Structure formats: structure tokens, C-alpha cells
Amino acid sequence: MSISSKASAGHFTILYFASASSYTSKDSEILQAPLPLSKLFETLEERYPGIKAKVLESCLVTVNLEYVDVTGESAGDQTIIQEGDEVAIIPPVSSG
Amino acid sequence: MANELEMHEEECYVALSYEPLDAKAAMDRVRSPKAGAIVLFAGTTRDNFRGRPVKELQYTSYEPRALQTMLAICKSIHKKHSLTSIVMIHRLGIVPIGEESILIAVSCPHREAAWRAGEEALEECKRKVEVWKREEFGGAAGGVWRANRDGAAGVEIDPVENEKENAPAQGPHGPILRPARPGEHGHGPVVM
């Protein structure tokens, strides 16, 4: 899988892996930026009904390769996903 | 190896590879006149999930993120156990049954630390590294994404997976038939 399809102006790239990829039938897509991190899951739920309960609630999220707190009360409220960012949905891993 | 993605820092080397893994090459990377022991772990792909035939396994990864996590694990364990050298290589793509999906090699002046470091590196890898395993059952049966955290399937691609509530707890490499140590994941205890 090629990781980054380059987002155009006013957009960011979101990557889906494993169960998130199966649920969306996509490896990645382009969404509108800026987007508050706290609105990410509900934005995805609108596009893929049911994804929050079935997939996202067990997932972590990275922005530009760094893990961010998307569900906690603290950080999620302030962080804004910016144009050109690479966001990834990280399901529970199964390496080894 | 073609198509290989790799990172290294001092005596820590990590890689992802779409080609078959080479255990001897991993050992040779950590070999040193300062080391009195090399411990090599090779994780290989099983042909069944709770008795149900698995045709092949497929691994995907968030490659740049996984390499960073692998390097962080190796650096931490290298320091903690005063290793001479450590290598962690994970295979991606389709892995036929019985082949290596992961190699960890550590070298150390003495074997005790090498055993411990090898085990810890594997457990940390299985807990954190951004690689996902999909078991393909073949034909119309489809496949399922695994999760190391609890052995559960991720998105349900196959309803048969729901029948198994009374079966033994599932570790990443098979049913767990003995109690786990606190904090244990994966391949079971190291016997020393």
C-alpha cells in the first residue's frame, strides 16, 4: 500500500488499516481541513454509519506519525487537524 | 533484500520486508567478538486458528510508524540489558504457512540477559508495533483481522468466529492452556 496520497489545499489525508480499512473499503482518503480532532470520530461516523462502535472505539489515532488523545477530555478538545496533515486510524495491532 | 524498509541507530537495526526473512543474516548482523551469546527468535505462521484451517496469512503495516516503534523498543531493550546488538525484522504481505513472520536476534556478553531481552523485545513488539495480521481461510470463507491485545477478531468478516466463547483464551500463537503471568503476552514464559 502506498501510504500518502497527497492532500490538496484545504484537505488532509486519513489512512485506514486492518479493520478500519475493511469497514471503509478504503486504504486512505482525503477529508476537509481544518477539522478539530474532537470531531474526527463523528465525521467518520457520518460517512460510515456504525464505524464508531464497531471499529473506532478500540482504535488509536496518529497525526503526522504521533499518537494523539482523541477520546480523552484533555488534548482532544484543542488539537486541530490541519491542511496537509496525515491522520491514521490505528486498530489493535497483531504483529508477530 | 528487495523492497526492504529499514532504520538503524548504533547497535539497533529494525526492518520490514516483503521478502522471506533470513535467520542467518539476522544472526550475522548481531554477531560480535564481544558477545558470548546470540538468542534468535523466529515466529512462524500456523496452519490453523483453533483447529480451523488457515490457508495463508497477510500482514499490513503503517510502515514509517511501525519502524519508529520498533526502533524505540530496540533502543530501550538494548540499554536496559546492556546488549551488544539487537535486530528486529517483520515480514509483510502474504506469508505462506510455516514461514517466518518475525525475527528477533540479540547478542550479549552473557546468555541470561540475552534470553530476557529477546523475550521482552518480542512481547513489546506484539503489544505495540503497527503491523496487522489477517488470516485467510480460503474460498468463500474469507478472512479475519486479529488483535494481539485479546486474541479477538477485529471487524467481523466471518460469523463463525462468534461461536468460540467457551474455548480457551486465544494467544497470538495459539490457545492459552495455562494461566498467564501478570503482564504476559504471546509466546509464553521463558524457562531459565
TrEMBL record, chain A:
GO molecular function, one term: nucleotide binding
Modified residues (1-thioglycine): 96
Subunit (UniProt): Heterotetramer; composed of 2 small (MOCS2A) and 2 large (MOCS2B) subunits.
Keyword Transmembrane helix found: no
A Pfam match: ThiS
Protein name listed in UniProt: Molybdopterin synthase sulfur carrier subunit
Known pathway: Cofactor biosynthesis; molybdopterin biosynthesis
Entry's Gene Ontology cellular component terms: molybdopterin adenylyltransferase complex; molybdopterin synthase complex
Keyword Cytoplasm: yes
PTM annotation (Glycyl adenylate): residues: 96
Record-level GO BP terms: Mo-molybdopterin cofactor biosynthetic process
HAMAP family given in the database record: MOCS2A
Highest taxon of the lineage: Eukaryota
InterPro entries noted in UniProt: Beta-grasp_dom_sf, MOCS2A, MOCS2A_euk, Mopterin_synth/thiamin_S_b, ThiS/MoaD-like
Localisation per UniProt entry: Cytoplasm
Keyword line: Cytoplasm, Molybdenum cofactor biosynthesis, Nucleotide-binding, Phosphoprotein
Summary of the function given for this chain in its UniProt record: Acts as a sulfur carrier required for molybdopterin biosynthesis. Component of the molybdopterin synthase complex that catalyzes the conversion of precursor Z into molybdopterin by mediating the incorporation of 2 sulfur atoms into precursor Z to generate a dithiolene group. In the complex, serves as sulfur donor by being thiocarboxylated (-COSH) at its C-terminus by UBA4. After interaction with MOCS2B, the sulfur is then transferred to precursor Z to form molybdopterin.
Modified how: C-terminal thiocarboxylation occurs in 2 steps, it is first acyl-adenylated (-COAMP) via the hesA/moeB/thiF part of UBA4, then thiocarboxylated (-COSH) via the rhodanese domain of UBA4.
Family: Belongs to the MoaD family. MOCS2A subfamily.
Automatic annotation (TrEMBL), chain B:
Compartmental location: Cytoplasm
UniProt KW Transferase keyword: yes
Reaction it catalyzes: 2 [molybdopterin-synthase sulfur-carrier protein]-C-terminal-Gly-aminoethanethioate + cyclic pyranopterin phosphate + H2O = molybdopterin + 2 [molybdopterin-synthase sulfur-carrier protein]-C-terminal Gly-Gly + 2 H(+)
EC number: 2.8.1.12
Biological process according to GO: Mo-molybdopterin cofactor biosynthetic process
GO cellular component, one term: molybdopterin synthase complex
Metabolic or biological pathway: Cofactor biosynthesis; molybdopterin biosynthesis
Main location: cytoplasm
UniProt subunit comment: Heterotetramer; composed of 2 small (MOCS2A) and 2 large (MOCS2B) subunits.
Name of the protein described by the UniProt record: Molybdopterin synthase catalytic subunit
Taxonomic source organism: Amorphotheca resinae ATCC 22711
Organism lineage string: Eukaryota, Fungi, Dikarya, Ascomycota, Pezizomycotina
